[in-house]
Amino acid sequence: MKYTPLYQAHIDAQGKMVDFGGWEMPLNYGSQIEEHHQVRSDAGMFDVSHMTVVDFKGTQAKVFVQTLIANDVEKLKTEGKALYSCMLNESGGVVDDLIVYYINDEDYRMVINAGTTEKDIAWINLQAQSFDVSVEPKFDLAMIAVQGPNAREKVFAAMPGVENIAGELKPFNAASLGSLFIARTGYTGEDGFEIMLPDKSAEFTWKMLLEGGVKPCGLGARDTLRLEAGMSLYGSEMNDEVSPLEAALSWTVDLSNEDRQFVGRKALEELKNEGAKNTIVGLVLEGKGVIRNHQKVVTSLGDGEVTSGTFSPTMGKAIALARVPIDATGSCEIEMRNKLVSAKIVKPPFVRNGKVLV
Amino acid sequence: MSEVRDDRQYTQTHEWILDNGDGTYTMGVTDHAQALLGDMVFVELPVAGDEASQEDEFCVVESVKAASGVYAPADLEVVEVNEALDDAPELVNSSCYDDGWLVKFKAENIEDLMSAQDYTETLD
User: Fold this and answer.
1) What's the complex ipTM?
2) B2 in a domain, yes or no?
3) Which of A22, B26, B72, B112 has the fewest CB atoms lying closer than 10 Å?
4) CB A40 within 8 A of CB A150
């Protein structure tokens, strides 16, 4: 089992610890619904130190990242600017989804998923062989996500000096001070920061935030928040077999520069010509009950499957992301506990910045 | 540690049953069960007058994490259900032995129940 530098802090806060892909992580600290509301209405923090930071440095860093991922870092012109993208295999399936930060043309930083880290690094090293780039995983960095309408203000109050470097940051931008790296990004649909910092500073910073009124939130709330925000989860909405074009992630694929031969491009172009068959949509249950992963979805155009189902604490209803035949709209039925239950097909997100959008 | 109360009996599937002394019984889920399930979001109850045979799934408690059936411990007739759970399913978390009860029912006799002490031992 692997432990983040905040393990003891979770135990002290009565965290209910679970095995999350080999990491001992807090599922909740009592009530995941209260933690969810805390983030929507004020500010909460998540230990996401299990995720991995990888730096890419060298004269060919830019052209390498342009080859490695499906979005184009050509778009990134200013230091700290972030871009969401998928990294694909040759068949166009998703190896992982990630955020890449621009430092300069010879220096990029990427944040990849915890569960895929080993696979990703092997894959990246394989791709990097013919480039002048060094691939540097930063296993000695912790990461704390502080999210909610009051998150930024509370971070500024709890962490002296941060307002000077991050006070003016626009969404999807990052700033750094020594080994502290602060990004105005997140996975909840609320404003806030993802703070990368050395392992040895994590516990102190967590305590300062705690004293500043930021409540710890577990992986349970993190999942309901990201699902309300309509954000994909690797392994659920997409995986090695699923193309971003069939996961409602076409907006993260940039085919505009025909000279940019990124891994998986050929497969994506073929799929585009044939026409994608499936997509990811949102579902809202009309009656009672909770939609669960892998339940069957029956639409007028054919069957689909729930990729992520849950109860939305903000809406007080069950919601889901589901893979369905492309063009399926209107209503559908979900097979729940041997009954067909009616649901509405909607376009995610369900909730952003505290407001219900569907 | 999960709370177990001495005034009632228990099933192997983590429900408690309280003999009301007038031929009716009150039933709910134990502290251990509610903690395992996590935040409750829906409770599906029968209506008064419904009959259930032993081992029928006659209630469903559904948490953020999972849906869990509650099975009839005997052939029974429902006499009252806890309607407060419709609007406040979280009572099952906050007060599983009192305000978070599920149903009251009539039954001839209920077999295979455990005492509080025996139930506590199964939790170790």
Assistant:
1) 0.83
2) no
3) B112
4) no
